[in-house]
Amino acid sequence: MKVHDWISKKIVKKVLMVIVCLVIALLSIFVVAKYTTNPESYKNTIQSIDEKKATVMGVTATAAAVSTGLAAIPGDATTPIANQIMDISSYLLIVVCALVLEKSLLTVLGFLAFKILVPFACVLFAISIFTKRSLLKVLGIKFVVFAFVIATIIPFSLKISDMIYETNETMLTELTEKTKEIEKSKKEEKESKKWWEIFTDKIEKGASDASEKAKQILNSFIDTMALFIIAYCAIPVIVFLVVIWFVKFLFNITIPVPLKGKMQGLNKIEKENLCKEN
């Protein structure tokens, strides 16, 4: 009877653990996933992405206006620089694509993490309870960790990107002022001059050497483009790789076992070989 009771309790315990796994899987699918796939859950993150996208588009518009103004200055001194500014502004499209992709992946990765990976991990845990296969349990743990990583990686990387952006935001002041100047020039458009002609006159009056002024503007655009590409293209990739490496590092950690504990249950030859290795 005692043996029978012990077996019964053991079976009941396993059944309860399986039920717990199934409950966690259901909660992940119908509760957590409902939150992580709702765009309203990422309201602040999406707002930040939209603001950065609008800033990039504004810089692109400024590049087109400045390039037109420089090309209109008499002589060929500023024409090559105007062409370079237009070429540089085309790279900002990469930043816009990266921001749109990150915005789209917010809910997609939440769906993948809590509607697929976590429930699948729970199934592996449930199977390992009865089969006693440690491999399934380890795989389940890895799936759960990976699910949480991909669900939080984009908000985390965007937070770091925003910190870098805010630190270097002062370099955008000059370009922002140019945008306002162009808009003002449009409003001041006269019948005798178009807005870009007014802007050209301001550039010529603002610096004795148009070529030197154009080089300064080009440097500003290069700095701005570098800031956007580093903050919103390179940083998310670097953060993802670092997190994946750290998770892999944690799973590869081996806990040292005392030699005495290792030698228990080994025959004489195995003990001798183990001693040689140590």
Give a brief description:
This protein has 278 residues and is mainly α. The chain has helices spanning 2-36, 43-71, 79-90, 92-131, 134-167, 173-187, 195-206, 210-251, 259-263, 268-277.
Keywords:
278 residues; mainly alpha; 10 helices; elongated
Characterization of the model:
The protein has 278 residues and is mainly α. The chain has one domain (41-106, 146-277). The protein has helices at 2-36, 43-71, 79-90, 92-131, 134-167, 173-187, 195-206, 210-251, 259-263, 268-277. α6 (173-187) packs across α7 (195-206). Mean pLDDT is 77; it is low at 257-271.
H/E topology pattern: HHHHHHHHHH
Roughly how many Å apart are the termini? Answer: 48 Å
Poorly predicted parts: 257-271
Q: Fraction of residues in helices? A: over 70%
Number of domains: 1
Layout of secondary structure:
Blueprint: H1 2-36, H2 43-71, H3 79-90, H4 92-131, H5 134-167, H6 173-187, H7 195-206, H8 210-251, H9 259-263, H10 268-277
